[in-house]
Amino acid sequence: MSKSVMISSIVWRTGFPSTIGQAGRRRGSQTAFAFPANMFGMNNTRRSMTTTKSTAGDEEYDYLVIGAGSGGIASARRAASYGVKVAVVEKGRLGGTCVNVGCVPKKVMWNAASIAETLHDMKHYGFSGYDSDAVAFNWKFIKNARDKYVARLNGIYDRNMGNSGVTKILGTASLTSNHGEVEVIPSEGGDAVIYKAKHVLLATGGYPVFPKIDGISNAISSDGFFELDELPQKAVVVGAGYIAVELAGVLQALGTDTSLVVRKDKALRNFDDIVAETLDIEMQRQGINIYRNTNGLAKITIEEESGLKTVTLNNGEIIEGVDTVLVATGRAPLVAPLNLGARGVKQKPGGYIVTNDYSETNVDGIYALGDVVGNVELTPMAIAAGRRLADRLFGGPQHEGAKVSYEHVPTVVFSHPPIGTIGLTEQEAIAKYGEENVKVYRSKFANLFYGPFQVEADDKPKTAMKLVCAGEEELVVGLHVIGMGADEMLQGFGIAIKMGATKADFDSTVAIHPTASEEFVTMFPWGLSKQETGAITSPLNGAPAAEPKITVKEA
Questions:
Q1: CB 31 within 8 A of CB 167
Q2: Who's near 233: CB < 8 A, 6+ residues apart?
Q3: For 71-116, how does the pLDDT look when each residue is reduced to its tens digit (9 = 90+)?
Q4: How far apart are CA 491 and CA 505, in angstroms?
Q5: Of 291, 310, 332, 551, which has the maximum CB count within 10 A?
């Protein structure tokens, strides 16, 4: 007979293998399952528990979070700061996709690739030695250093949860048919434990998906990229999204003969044209082979003796002698293990959990956020949503109605060169406001870094920028940039756009020279837009700066 444990909220996360042919083995930061029969259909059939009996836990919690990714942990720690009892359920390493097989290790590899590009360019600044044996790259060295850094972050997450008073439960969690119950199969084995919770948060994230083709077991996902022990000599990256272009750029810069396979005419088709087209040109300039209008993969075969792969595309093109085939064609929400059907939690096509603006599902006391929801699949978005949910549930009357906005979310693609974007593309703005109400400002130039290069102007990498404005006041509704430093310049512009800046507001800001970002506040024609501000305190026409509200204590 099992006794129940009262928990106000639980967070759980788990994962799938990074290669289809290696199901059931622990991969990277996530714990692998054998692929369930309903994986691609994402139905809610409860997995069989006929051989597992349930026992009782011995704690009562206020908040139970399923998934120790960035969003789940952020929500759990914020909830604990209000004095409630909180637990997080996790089967893999702490930090989720971002820390273990996403943002963090990817940025480390992007940094390595950027250093390689700088070494390649150093001759233009008077340095020699690039073509000698004095300069060499050791893949195993950076992999080892990167993995140690990630492990250190795992420890930091663990200590932070402990210091915040959050209980860590190691195991695999799923909903039961009873209100407020969560079943956890302990990682160390033994009987399943039933926990009760007033509030349950589903923050299980997502996993890479593969096309159903012959030989797909010979490919790896983006997760598998971080398990490579050697730098491939020849790689094929399949996909047109940000993960594909990021990893293709890293591999090419570090010395791999890299091909990018896209289904249609170019990568990043959902981004603004100025970004997608400039990246396409730059990838070709760097030597990446782009296979276009392929309609995707047809099959992958492997030569047993050499281990090299042959990639056949649906348009008939063939790529031979390939070490590594990396498939980055998309991700899906990790919902199959959650047993959502037991409680009738609604899902959208593709398996994403349906939520309202407050991260609430259709079932009272069950919430969801992050990649499992699919609104904006970015780590900082999940963190913000998780904290605001905890504020609203446990923070008292001052946080009543607290929620996040999924509009004007800045994001960066760590391609080579990097991309920064926020708001509407030009085409999206025209569709929303009408072409007659949209005004666009553009600029394209070579960064000053390339000034001393004694090469033709057309051969210098380009920075491209676009401001998309709408309405009589020329409200900035979209900002897009690709080029050196784009990743570090976007955050500040994101604040301005979230606050409702106009073109006149941009023009009123004195440029920082010489920088690339100054182009955004000097775009032609400068200073001729309607003098209307989006700020509470106008910065226009030499107005004084805003002053804080000060409470003067009486003597």
A1: no
A2: 256, 257, 323
A3: 999 999 999 999 999 999 999 999 999 999 999 999 999 999 999 9
A4: 17
A5: 332
For tokens 């000060």, what's the residue? 550
User: Per-residue pLDDT for 186 more than 60?
Assistant: yes
Sign of CA dihedral 228, 233, 239, 245: positive
DSSP string, 260-283: EE-SSSSS-TTS-HHHHHHHHHHH
User: How far, in Å, CA of 325 to CA of 296, rounded?
Assistant: 13
DSSP letter assigned to residue 63: E
Residue matched to tokens 């309405």: 471
Q: Say what the pLDDT of residue 269 is.
A: 96
Q: How many CB atoms lie within 10 A of CB 305?
A: 6
Residues with active-site annotation: 513
Write down the residue that tokens 């919770």 correspond to.
197
Element (H, E) at 17: none
Q: In what order do the strands lie in the sheet with 257-261?
A: 289-291, 257-261, 234-238, 324-327
d(CA 218, CA 237): 13
Q: How confident is the model at residue 203 (pLDDT cuts 50, 70, 90)?
A: very high
> How confident is the model at residue 131, as a pLDDT?
81
CA torsion 346-348-353-355 (nearest 10°) is: -80
Burial zone of 307 (CB within 10 Å; 0-12 exposed, 13-18 middle, 19+ buried)? exposed
The Cα–Cα gap between 391 and 405 comes to 15
User: Sheet holding 438-446: strands in order across?
Assistant: 411-413, 419-423, 475-482, 462-470, 438-446
Q: Contact, 300 vs 311, CB < 8 A?
A: yes
Distance, CA of 172 to CA of 183 (rounded, Å): 8
pLDDT band for position 6 (50/70/90)?
Answer: very low
* Cα–Cα dist 196/8, whole Å: 7
Please state whether beta strands 297-302 and 309-313 pair in parallel, antiparallel, or not at all (unpaired): antiparallel
Q: Summarize pLDDT for 465-499 with one digit per residue, the tens.
A: 999 999 999 999 999 999 999 999 999 999 999 99
* pTM (predicted TM-score): 0.87
Q: How many helices (H) and strands (E) does the chain have?
A: 11, 24
Residue 471 φ/ψ, nearest 5 degrees:
85, 170
Q: What letter does residue 346 receive in the DSSP assignment?
A: -
- Report the distance separating Cα 76 and Cα 65, nearest Å: 7
What is the chain's percent helix, strand, coil content, to nearest 5? 30, 25, 45
pLDDT of residue 343: 96
Rounded to the nearest integer, the mean pLDDT of the chain is 89
